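The freezer alarm interrupted the setup, so I double-checked each line after restarting. Inputs confirmed:
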Amino acid sequence: MKVALIGNPNTGKTSLFNQLTGLNQKVGNYPGITVSKKTGSCKLSATESATIIDLPGTYSITPSSLDEAIVLDTLVDTKNKAYPDVIVVVSEVENLKRNLYLFSQVKDLEIPTILAINMADQLENKGISIDVAMLEKELNTKIVLISAKKNQGIDELKKTMLDYQNISTKPLEEISKRMDTDFFEKLKNENPKIALYTLWLLISQEFLPEKTKNEYQSLIDSYKSEKAKIKKLQQKETIYRYQFINDILKKTYVVDKSKASGIQAKLDRILTHKIFGYVIFFLILALIFQSIFSWSSIPMDFIDAQTTNLADFITSKLPAGAFTDLITQGVIPGIGGIVIFIPQIVILFLFVSLLEETGYMSRVVFLMDKIMRKFGMSGKSVVPLISGTACAIPAIMAARNINGWKERLITILVTPFTTCSARLPVYTIIIALIIPETEILGIFNLQGFVLLGMYLLGFLMAIVSAYILHKIMKVKAKNFFIIEMPTYKLPLLKNIGITVIEKTKAFVWGAGKIILAISIVLWFLASNGGEKFKNAEQIVKDKYANTHVSEEQLQNDISSYQLEHSYIGQMGKAIEPVIRPLGYDWKIGIALISSFAAREVFVGTLATIYSIGNDTDDETTIKERMNAEINPDTGKKRFDFPTGMSLLVFYAFAMQCMGTLAIVKKETNSWKWPLVQLFGMGAIAYVSSFLVYTFLS
Amino acid sequence: MTIEQLHIGEKGIIKDFLFSEVPLSLLEMGCLPGKVVEMIQVAPLKDPIYIRVNGSDIAIRTETAKQIEITKL
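Predicted 3D structure, all chains:
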């Protein structure tokens, strides 16, 4: 059997889902839209098990966007694979009134519906008493009091689900009768086989799934002319539903006001305070950044070392040849390049989900909304922009819950400017080359100061470009902002754990595939070439015919010569005229192209080009070698101050990440926006680097 | 007067909506004519505002609040 869970956000619906299914859950995507689809299996009794469908949290089943239409689609289309045998409406003790609004809509669909009231363990605490028997009678349903957190009432809920055939499917008819008896009777008589409320939803909704729309086209068309009347009736419906609920709650729900703790109000006074509110928020931000950078360096170094070890191990075990090279130089570094980001992503989402679970994130949205709006974004854009400092890919996925299309799009477009962790190795090595290691004012390290400057530069560029986009983009779409300020809650570790696993999985499967594919393509381009590539060994040996060199030096020189004459080397040479004005040569060109897999590949590629072998761990070696590289045109150092600065600016602004482009394509459902990013950010990077280089040299 | 003119802690009763088309999601959150609305907090820069209405704690932007007429209590 199939059970659908539906409920308002912040009612603990996800906790219940986790409690019922444990780790037996699957997260998928609905085709074409960005809401994720969560299903899981649950044993209801010794013989029966159920598929549980966790529908996205919502306040109403009437959708205000195509993404939200998924709830309606599941509950209205009887042929839908997820069409449930029984629905559980998850509500909670404090916001019962608003929760019952959704319940009343669901109940009218004439599917067996159970009302689960969560957080029942806190009834006494909050001075709330509910007359469950009376409420069951009034709503004509089965009610189960549960506490998903304390695992109370779950068995009873399972029993009730098994017994679903005994739950009345009679709608709360009164509402339609009170609204407009004639209108609704006519509608019902024309289509006696379909639930009245379903009919009403079909004719009144703007956002219907394409399939449903086609199926009921004639019905929908026949009511097109009554649009104005339907709009009025919709408002009436909401008012009547609330009246109906208020009448029932008066008889069944009592709150003893003297028991209210007032903690919520006190916390709100501090956390949303004009000054302390921001101070606390920035302290939390500082903590997040600190942990992303310091805590994650240990596992990241470990992963880095293990990837190299694994590649070495396989090289020593497998016979030499193209296949071994593919594994050790294409596949393993590719996978390593994905896995290396996991620690930072885990830490980031640990914080983000902690802040969301406690209810604090809504306060941040509240504090930041007006400021962000000046730049065409929303208070909800804060999460993506923070997440972008780890990796733009999960950050862009986090933009899903921004309601306005324009606000969401601007957030997606500017997020890649924030300094992601892949830029860090590039910045570190260039800064080490061009900025002296001096102290300023006795405390600040100048190199560290420049690095901080790079972060600010990225953030500033994000804000400036958002402002420009805000001014030029003309989107007339109605955008209505309303957020719930949930009560503060102690976070549930299980929920946080599951969220972190889910997000990390989404990153590994989503972006991982692309990074891996690009790594393999780049490996192919770097390990194949024309005549000179094939004869590299002979050519280099001939060159050294009369001089003595160590075997290691010889091998490194061969690798370097091969890379120069490989396909990617030819590509680097081909783009040299274009990048010369920025102070780069074809060698840097190769590194720029390789960066499309992930920016940090820059360092490894340069190491190969400068023939220091594969031992890229040795930062001093590569630094010394880069420092010794001479620009034949000027006779000065290749990585001098102007070129270094130009490179820093280029890496700060250019869109060099295939993974991000693919995610933007998926999230915006069009190639237009990733191309705008690729060329827009590319142009900004090119012009800025050109100006920096010209001005400094 | 309209909602955003309330000071923190003050209450009013919703009288009427001035929107040309009332956003359904506002109604669905319980913000309905005849209901008591209390100002809980105003964000810096006076926008958005944090209100309690019909048992729900919600934040709305000032541009929306300006469309909701109230009688002060």
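Quick read of the result. Chain B has a mean pLDDT of 91.
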